[in-house]
Amino acid sequence: MAQLSARRIGHLHFTAVNDRGASVEIGKGPEQFTPGELMQLAVAGCQALSADSRFEQALGEDYHATFTVSADANREENRFTAFHTALEVEFADMPEEARAALLGRVDRAIERACTVGRTLDHPAPHNLEIRDAAGN
């Protein structure tokens, strides 16, 4: 798995990086994603990437797709209760029977390959270890 890290930039602001050179701003300010938004994007992004090869095989390398994602939340419990992804794909003139078969392959690919969705189906423990940066 990729090594991820984040460095505090200021009040409620971190910059996260991976070992491939990508970065994302995490926080509550402008041009930053909140952790909840990142979670929503992780769910939808995982679904879209898991489906991508199936769509590409059927529709061509340059097929067009866009996703949107939202979430329902239980504010009293401070947690998400559901995620809703809409993936818009240009099917061109694909016959209905071929489209239905493709969507079946896409669903199976997402079920098999979307690590984020599979984790949400079977929650993983999460812990936090706080260490002294000076080594004390």
TrEMBL record:
It comes from the Bacteria. InterPro entries: KH_dom-like_a/b, OsmC/Ohr_fam, OsmC/Ohrsf. It holds the Pfam family OsmC. This is OsmC-like protein.
